[in-house]
Specification:
- The chain has 7 helices and 8 strands, in the order βββαβααβαβαββαα.
- It has about 180 residues and is of the alpha+beta class.
- Strand 1 and strand 2 form a beta hairpin.
């Protein structure tokens, strides 16, 4: 639902679907498995491509080469538990910003406002769940639905399938 308020702002609503999936792994094993299943973006390469004013075809090849086996890569990672564990005990949690630059370009070409959501966040944490450490994320198709763009929905379901592919690999290969 979209509406305009008194200050001429646009306000949109969507139902966000959050996934918290126990993996059957300990926290350290989950982190290692997740990072093995993902590619990793290199910001030095990004800077070189920008300096070269590289053609998009070259940029696409670089994105493809850095993507992991599921077509996703880590753009940023922060171990949130490392410092926060200094207060009230050990916290095992890490935040990853993940995505695929080729898919992001397609999304942003449809609606640049989606830059708030892609790449997207994935959290790994251990809260003592009997099913092991957890991989958690908001389903990309749910948060991109806020833009009410049918073309975005098709692409966002591709991101859904890629993160589910990562989860499936972790749960089947590393147990």
């Amino acid at each position: 639902m979209t509406m305009h308020d008194r200050e001429n702002r646009m306000v949109s609503h969507a139902r966000i679907i959050r996934e918290d999936i126990p993996t059957g792994l300990g926290y350290e094993a989950l982190v290692a498995a997740f990072e093995r299943e993902m590619g990793r973006w290199d910001p030095l390469v990004e800077n070189a491509l920008i300096q070269q004013k590289a053609p998009w075809e070259k940029v696409k090849r670089v994105f493809h080469s850095m993507a992991g086996p599921h077509g996703l890569m880590i753009f940023f990672h922060v171990d949130q538990g490392r410092l926060t564990s200094l207060h009230h005990g050990i916290k095992r949690c890490a935040l990853y910003i993940v995505g695929n630059g080729i898919i992001a370009e397609q999304i942003l070409s449809i609606d640049v406002r989606a830059s708030q959501y892609v790449p997207f966040s994935v959290c790994l944490y251990d809260n003592g769940h009997p099913g092991g450490a957890i991989i958690s994320f908001d389903r990309p198709s749910s948060f991109l639905a806020v833009f009410q763009q049918p073309a975005l929905m098709e692409i966002s379901r591709l991101l859904d399938s890629r993160i589910y592919s990562v989860v499936h690999a972790i749960r089947s290969k590393y147990r």
